[in-house]
C-alpha cells in the first residue's frame, strides 16, 4: 500500500497521459495508447452542462460539468443488479459488490479504498434490482488515479476461497442486522414475493439466506466475467472537469478493455397478468403497531414515455404526501382520527414494472378491517371528486423546487443519470423529466389513477404482532 501512495498517479505502471496521441475526426476522436487505437463517438452536448459519448468497446460516458469547486465524482454503473441473477443464486450481485473491494492483479485487498482515503476522498458502492454502481469523490486532479484503479478492477479481480468465506459471512451478518432483526423488513420481503410472482423484483436484493449460504467462488466469478465489461457499463463523471479531458482519460483507461462478446440481451421474465387480489398477514411479536400496506402494479418511466409516471408522482403526493394536505392524512388522521399515520408511495425509477402503494397505521381501538375500509373510501372519494387546482399548483411548485435544488448536488446528479441509463432511459429523458413533471394535468392524474387502482393487480398486507390483531 505504501508503494502506491508514494507514486499515486503511476502505481500501476501505466504510461502517463501525455504519452497518449489523439486524432480528431468529423465522427469523433481516436486515441492511441500502448499501440492500441481507441475510437470515440463525436460528443453530444445536451443542455448547458451535460456531454455524452461512447467508446468503441461499447462503454457509454456521461460528463456533467460543475466548476464551482475543484471536486469530481466518478461513478461506474453496471447494467447488472439482483434481478439479473441466475435462479438459485440470489444475492450474488450484492456479494460481488463486496468482493470488488478485495484484490486485483495490481491491488492488495483493501488497497483501493485506502488509496482513495489517502488522497482525501471517499468511495463506496451499492446494489439495486437493476444495477450495481461504484463511486469515488475526490479532488479533481485525482481523477486519473481513480480511473486507473476502477478500470483495473473491471477486468483484473483476484479472489481466493478465503475471500469468499469471509465475505459470505459478512453479507449473511448484514442480512441478519438489516432484515432478519427487523419485522418490517421481513414483512416487506414477503410482500414483494407476493407482488412479483415471476419478475425477480420478488427476490430480495441481499438474497434469500439459504441461497446466500451456498454462493461460491465460481458463482461470483461467473457473474463478474459476464457482466463486468465495458459494453455493459456506464461511466458518469461529474464535477470540475472538461469533456475533452474526460474523453482522453476514458479512452486511456477504459477504452483498452475488450468488450464481452457473449454478453446476452438483457431479457427479464415478465409478470403474468394478475387476475385476482392477493392478501397476506404477517405475524411477528416484535411488531410494535399493526399496520396495513397495499400495493398495485404501476408503470415505470420509459424512454420517450414518462407522462404516466409523472402523473403517478403527483398522485402519491395528493393521496399521501403531507398528512396536513393529502387526502389520506386529512380524512383519516384529522377528520376522523382513524389513523395515526398514512402514506402513499411511488418510485418511477425502475427497469420493469414498479408499484404504487398505500399504507395506514390505525389509531388505538380501530381494527385493521375498519382502517382498510376507511382507506378504500378515501380512494373512492378521490376518484369521484375534482382535483383542487390549488393543491395541484402547490405540488407542482414543490417538485419544481426539488428539481432545482437537486442541481446543487453533484453526486446526486451523477446518480440520476447513471440509474436512468441502467434502467432503459436516455440522457435526453433525464433532461426532459423536470418539464414533464411541470406539464402534468389533473386529467393526466385521474387517468393514471384509473389504471393503477385495480384490486386485481394489488396485494394487501396486514402486519401484526399477534393473530388476534388481524381482524
From TrEMBL:
The keyword Protease applies. Residues 215-399 form the Peptidase M16 C-terminal domain. It comes from Loktanella salsilacus. Keywords: Hydrolase, Metalloprotease, Protease, Signal. This is Zinc protease. Residues 261-281 are annotated as: Disordered. The lineage of its organism: Bacteria, Pseudomonadati, Pseudomonadota, Alphaproteobacteria, Rhodobacterales. GO terms for molecular function: metal ion binding; metalloendopeptidase activity. InterPro entries: Metalloenz_LuxS/M16, MPP/UQCRC_Complex, Pept_M16_N, Pept_M16_Zn_BS, Peptidase_M16_C. Pfam families: Peptidase_M16 (PF00675), Peptidase_M16_C (PF05193). Residues 1-19 form the signal peptide. Residues 61-206 form the Peptidase M16 N-terminal domain. The keyword Protease applies. Belongs to the peptidase M16 family. Its cofactor is Zn(2+). It comes from the Bacteria. SUPFAM superfamilies: LuxS/MPP-like metallohydrolase. GO terms for biological process: proteolysis.
Amino acid at each position: 500500500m505504501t508503494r502506491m501512495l508514494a507514486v499515486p498517479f503511476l502505481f500501476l505502471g501505466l504510461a502517463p497521459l501525455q504519452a497518449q496521441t489523439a486524432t480528431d475526426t468529423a465522427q469523433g476522436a481516436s486515441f492511441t495508447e500502448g499501440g492500441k487505437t481507441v475510437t470515440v463517438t463525436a460528443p453530444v452536448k445536451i443542455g448547458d452542462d451535460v456531454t455524452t459519448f461512447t467508446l468503441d468497446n461499447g462503454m457509454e460516458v456521461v460528463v456533467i460539468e460543475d466548476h464551482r469547486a475543484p471536486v469530481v465524482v466518478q461513478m461506474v454503473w453496471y447494467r447488472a443488479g439482483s434481478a439479473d441473477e441466475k435462479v438459485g443464486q440470489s444475492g450474488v450481485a450484492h456479494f460481488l459488490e463486496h468482493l470488488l473491494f478485495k484484490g486485483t492483479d495490481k491491488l492488495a485487498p483493501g488497497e483501493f479504498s485506502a488509496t482513495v482515503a489517502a488522497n482525501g476522498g471517499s468511495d463506496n458502492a451499492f446494489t439495486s434490482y437493476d444495477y450495481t454502481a461504484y463511486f469515488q469523490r475526490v479532488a479533481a486532479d485525482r481523477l486519473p488515479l481513480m480511473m486507473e484503479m476502477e478500470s483495473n478492477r473491471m477486468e483484473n479481480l483476484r479472489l481466493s476461497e478465503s475471500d469468499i468465506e469471509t465475505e459470505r459471512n459478512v453479507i449473511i451478518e448484514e442480512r441478519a442486522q438489516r432484515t432478519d432483526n427487523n419485522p418490517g423488513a421481513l414483512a416487506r420481503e414477503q410482500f414483494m414475493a407476493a407482488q412479483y410472482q415471476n419478475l425477480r423484483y420478488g427476490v430480495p436484493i441481499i438474497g434469500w439466506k439459504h441461497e446466500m449460504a451456498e454462493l461460491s467462488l465460481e458463482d461470483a466469478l461467473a457473474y463478474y466475467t459476464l457482466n463486468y465489461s465495458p459494453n455493459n457499463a456506464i461511466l458518469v463523471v461529474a464535477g470540475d472537469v472538461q469533456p475533452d479531458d474526460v474523453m482522453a482519460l476514458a479512452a486511456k483507461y477504459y477504452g483498452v478493455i475488450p468488450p464481452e462478446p457473449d454478453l446476452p440481451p438483457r431479457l427479464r421474465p415478465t409478470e403474468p397478468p394478475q387476475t385476482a387480489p392477493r392478501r397476506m398477514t404477517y405475524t411477528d411479536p416484535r411488531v410494535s403497531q399493526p399496520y396495513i400496506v397495499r400495493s398495485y402494479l404501476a408503470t415505470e418511466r420509459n424512454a420517450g414515455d414518462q407522462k404516466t409516471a409523472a402523473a403517478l408522482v403527483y398522485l402519491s403526493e395528493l393521496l399521501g404526501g403531507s398528512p396536513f394536505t393529502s387526502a389520506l392524512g386529512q380524512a383519516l388522521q384529522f377528520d376522523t382520527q382513524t389513523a395515526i399515520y398514512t402514506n402513499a408511495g411511488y418510485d418511477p425509477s425502475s427497469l420493469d414494472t414498479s408499484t404504487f402503494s398505500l399504507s395506514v397505521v390505525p389509531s388505538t381501538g380501530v381494527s385493521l378491517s375498519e382502517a382498510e375500509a376507511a382507506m378504500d373510501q378515501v380512494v373512492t372519494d378521490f376518484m369521484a371528486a375534482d382535483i383542487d387546482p390549488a393543491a395541484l399548483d402547490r405540488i407542482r411548485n414543490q417538485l419544481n423546487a426539488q428539481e432545482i435544488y437537486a442541481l446543487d448536488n453533484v453526486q446526486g446528479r451523477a446518480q440520476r443519470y447513471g440509474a436512468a441509463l441502467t434502467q432503459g432511459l436516455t440522457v435526453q429523458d433525464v433532461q426532459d423529466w423536470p418539464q414533464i413533471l411541470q406539464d402534468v394535468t389533473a386529467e393526466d392524474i385521474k387517468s393514471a389513477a384509473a389504471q393503477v387502482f385495480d384490486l386485481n393487480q394489488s396485494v394487501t398486507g396486514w402486519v401484526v404482532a399477534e393473530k388476534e390483531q388481524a381482524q
